[in-house]
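Work Package 3 (structural annotation) set out to generate three-dimensional models for the target panel prioritized at the project kickoff. During this period the team completed the workflow that converts sequence records into discrete structure tokens, so that structures can be stored uniformly alongside our sequence database. As a representative example, we reproduce one entry of 288 residues exactly as it appears in the project archive.
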Amino acid sequence: MTDERPDLATGAFTDFADRMGYGEYLRLPGLLSLQHPVSDSHDEMLFIVIHQATELWMKLAIHELNGARASIQHDDLSTAFKQMARVSRIQSQLIQSWDVLSTLTPSEYLQFRDKLGQASGFQSHQYRLIEFVLGNKQRARMKPHAHNPDVLAVLARQLESPSLYDECLRLLHRRGFAIPPEVVDRAWDRPYTANDAVRAAWTSIYAESATHWELYELAEKLIDVEDWFQQWRFRHMKTVERIIGHRRGTGGTDGVGYLKKALEIRFFPELWDLRTELQPTGEPVVER
């Protein structure tokens, strides 16, 4: 008896002797050869793949955040909105990855943890780039990369550039809001601190959202990015607590304690403050 079922792939290319195929385009042989467990533990592969995939998602997030910042510099807010919305979706994927990693039990992790040496996510230069572009500028966090001049140079450029929020505040200044000179032209390698004039500008934008709709939407896109980022941090902290409790991290930090402190950092402080201070105006807010 012959198999007479139709071939669902009829018409698909099958000869790639002289054509670029899926594997070649994505360079899969190299990508799939990068997982090298340092122990005999079955579960270490999970640990490696999750962290490598996270680095790929972070690479895309950095690409989109840099793009959004450039779009805001050129007053192209519609493009910035699309790029920032994509970042929020990336962050959603990163949060879900903790659900997969949380299937790793404490006893399974302890089978290979000692083999990791001092390797830790604390040393991820891409995570540091995300923090820098969002405004958490801390030069001391570059020290783990002092041995790598190329990475150090990339971090230094991001540290010394205006953050995404800095560019938003410069945009408000261009749009006629009273943003002080010390905000629009400051030392970009320093952490941003909340400013009363900035808070007043954002409050005005929220109070008159119909008049300043584009800037109002920009503010909410910023809040989306920070909200998802904090959820990612929180899920990270709870996953670490679930797997190692309150042990010190492999990188030397106090583990869960360090991650809890990170939850207190705010990138866009005035946008959070005004939610407490904003007074009702009677003006309906149109849904986004």
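The two ends are 60 Å apart (CA to CA).
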